[in-house]
Structure formats: C-alpha cells, structure tokens
Amino acid sequence: MEPSTLEVDAFVTFTLAILLLFVGKELTQRMPALRKYSIPEPVVGGFLCTLVVGLLYFVANIRIHFDLNVRDLLLLYFFAGIGLKSEVKTLLAGGRPLLVLLALSATFIILQNMLGMGVASTFGLDPRAGLLVGSISLVGGIGTTLAWVPDFTERLGISNALEIGTAGSMLGLIIACIIGGPIANYLMREHKLQPSHDARLEIGVVHGADSADTRLDYYGVLRAWLWLNLALLLGQGLASMIRSTGLNLPDFVGSLLAGIVLRNITPLILPRQSARNWKKVSQGLALISDICLGMFLTMALMGLQLWALKGVFGFVFSTLVLQVILTLFYTIWVVFRFMGKDYEAAVLCAGFGGIALGSTSTAVANMSAVTRQYGAAHRAFIIVPLVGGFFIDLVNALVISWMSR
User: Fold this and answer.
1) Using CA atoms, how far apart are residues 86 and 106, in angstroms rounded to an integer?
2) Which residue(s) pair with 5 in the sheet?
3) In angstroms, rounded to a whole number, what is the distance separating the alpha carbons of residues 212 and 390?
4) Alpha helices per DSSP H over 213-303
5) What count of other Cβ atoms lies within 10 Å of the Cβ of residue 150?
6) Average confidence (pLDDT) over 252-258
7) What is the pLDDT of residue 270?
C-alpha cells in the first residue's frame, strides 16, 4: 500500500526548525558528553526529527514532506557572514596552508573513489557504481549526486544510481556531523595541544563567555544585517559571472567571495566609520551567522528520508563503514601532520571530517562546535570554506570524469 503523504508548509517547517534548534541547544547544555566531544547543537534536534519521521514512515506508513525552500537562503547568509569577517592579512596567511589542504583533499578524493569502486566490485556491481558512495555523494553532497545521476543512469546503465547516491549522501551527512568534534578532541588530548582561549569567534560565542564581552548592540546587529544583504546582492552577480564561464559551483561561493570583497574594501572607503563600528558589526555577524548555520543544518537533517535506504542499505552501509575508517586514518595521520600539528590544525581536521563525508556547511558546523569549547581558530575558518566550497568542487568534477570513463 502506498504511504499517505503529509505536506508541511514552509512557515510551519521553519517554526519547527526553531523548536528543534532549541531542543538541540538544551540537550547539549544538559549532557556534558555532547559538549565534551563538540557535537554540533543543530545535529541533536535535527537527528531526533529524522528518527521520528522515519518511525512514522515505517510504523504508520505516513510520509512527511517538509517545504525547505528557505534553507538555501540561510546558507547564503551564513557564508556571506564568514566572508564579511575575513581580512586580507588572514587570507594571505592562509595561502600556503590552503594549497596544502587542497592537495591533501585531491589525494583523498582519489583514495575515497578507489575504495568505493573496490567495494562495488566485491558486491558484484559495476565498479563505477562505487563512485556514487565515493566523492560524488560524500565530498560532493546531494547537489553533486543529483547532477551526476543522469549520466550514470543513461551512459553507464546503473539504474539505481539515484537510490545509491541519495543513500550515501544521507548517511554521510549524519556521520560527518558526529565525527568532527571527537577527531579534534582526540588530537588535542593525544598531542597535549593548548586551546586558543580566543573568544573572538567567527560564529557564536565561547561556552561560558562573560556576557559583558558578548553584549550586542542594536545598531551593530542592524548594520550587520545590512552588510549581509549587500553581500547577497553582490554575491548573486558574482555567481552569475562564475556560471557564465561554464563552471557549475554552489551559489554560496558567490556570497562568500562577495563578503570577502566588501569586508576588505570598506576600510579603504570609510576608514573612520569602519574602525568605530566594525567591532559591534562583527558581534552582530557572529549572532546572525550562528542562527543561520544552526537553522540550515537542522533543516538539512529534517529533510533526510530514511526510507531511501531500502534496497541499497547493505552495499551503502558496508562502503560507508570503510569510508569512515579511511577518513579517520587520513585526517588524524596525514591532514593533521601536514597542516601544522597545532590547535588550528586540530580544528581544521574537525572540518575536514565534515568535508570528507558531508558538506562544507557540516565542516564549518563541526569547527564551530570545537571553537565554542576551546576558542577561535581564525585561519581554519578561511581555509576550509574556500577549499570545501570552491576549489574542491573543481577537483572533484575532474576526478569523477576521469574515473567514470
């Protein structure tokens, strides 16, 4: 019997996401283990919703469909906020590490795909089906999966490409949200790393921070909102310019670049105004970015459909177990060492776990959870979004084209 579908409109979905974010924050405050391992707060509430929705489907034969249109706008606000807190001197300092992380990421994509293809062969499938539980669904995410599915279905004859890719992306996102914090926690404990204790976070505030240091100003928040909207407007233009070159990159890349441009030309145009007000604007940006990221990730998890696993669970689950082992080994023994073996590197590794199995937004959420606990890591918040949201998509597309021949 076909399941009955319950449509939840955009306003109710948004309201429910706020409630789930409250649930996640409250449970994180009440459960020390969640804070100790830096599990992102939105993951807690969003994952509970995923379980309830899945239970309703399998027990009561009710399929719940949430209208998630506002989710993508929240992501644009979030990355615009990251860009607006990025100074040129920080970007220049991240030049060499950015290239190193890009090279490490490119190597990992190849290893990830080789592993997926090997498991597919073991299951008697076309080896190229393994790419769908490799960098297509994991590093690439659901957007890359949907973009490649027609090619795998029509050219390669893999009829269940959509089911395999969607299931890989879904499970990968859940795991990526969980492993980042424990990776950073392990590295800090194993290598006796000292936290930065820098409370000037890109997103949110440090746990237990003095309220006097984080007091918000009405005009600071309003100015932050204005700058964010200006960044989104400029970002639309930059995204259109990028698409006109033939590159198919996520829309948030334009917002990120626009934020960087506005942040660094403002002091040249309005030097006094910028110096006097930017600290308050920065606090407003941290608040708005925190809310937008939390809401985006909560809604992303709300949209997961566990029933998509039916029929491909064995292959996808077996592959992902091995992919997680590969990710942990590579992140801890390779990425951490090449990125400097310090606190910044540990935070970056939490982000790499998010990139490797989930998405750039997951990577930043992981890093945000760690920095709330131990203090800011400014360079990591520049390098990871640029590599994960911009360069790695180009590399991934080339690798997938080569390995799917």
Assistant:
1) 25
2) 63
3) 37
4) 218-244, 252-269, 271-302
5) 11
6) 81
7) 67
Query: CA 181 to CA 285: how far, in whole Å?
Result: 23
pLDDT in tens, 34-86: 877 777 788 888 889 988 998 998 898 899 999 988 888 888 898 888 788 77
Half-sphere CA count of 150, side-chain side, radius 13 A: 3
Total length of the chain: 405
Two tokens at 291? 């809310």
Residue 137: name the closest of 103, 113, 111, 107 by CA: 113
Task: Name beta bridge partners: 7.
Answer: 65
CA dist 90 and 381 (Å) reads: 10
Say if CB 143 and CB 303 are below 8 A apart.
Answer: no
On whether the CB atoms of residues 102 and 392 are closer than 8 A, the answer is yes
Count CA within 13 A, CB hemisphere, residue 11.
Answer: 0
CA distance 54 to 60: 10
For the segment 166-225, what is each residue's pLDDT rounded down to a tens digit?
888 888 888 988 898 899 999 999 999 988 776 666 565 555 544 444 567 788 888 899
Which has the closest alpha carbon to 368: 137, 136, 103, 28? 28
Compute φ and ψ for 247, nearest 5 degrees.
-80, 135
Angle at which helix 313-330 crosses helix 343-357, to 10 degrees, equals: 160
**For residue 175, what is the domain's CATH number?**
1.20.1530
In this predicted model, which residue has the larger pLDDT, 250 or 62?
A: 62
Q: For residues 174 and 324, give the distance between their C-alpha atoms in angstroms, rounded to a whole number.
A: 12
Could you tell me the sign of the dihedral formed by the alpha carbons of 302, 178, 398, 293, in that order?
positive
Q: pLDDT of 85-127, one tens digit each?
A: 777 666 666 578 888 999 999 999 999 999 999 999 999 889 9
Query: Residue 153 forms beta bridges with which residues?
Result: none
Q: Domain of residue 143: give its range.
A: 4-403
State the pTM of this model: 0.73
List, for residues 364-398, the tens digit of each pLDDT value: 888 988 888 888 887 888 888 878 766 787 788 78
The angle formed by the CA atoms of residues 116, 118 and 124, to the nearest 5 degrees, is 105
Q: What is the pLDDT of residue 210?
A: 46
Report how far residue 384's alpha carbon sits from residue 373's, in angstroms, rounded to the nearest whole number.
19
Pair of tokens at residue 306: 């566990």
Give the total number of structural domains in the chain: 1
Distance CA 357, CA 363 (A): 9
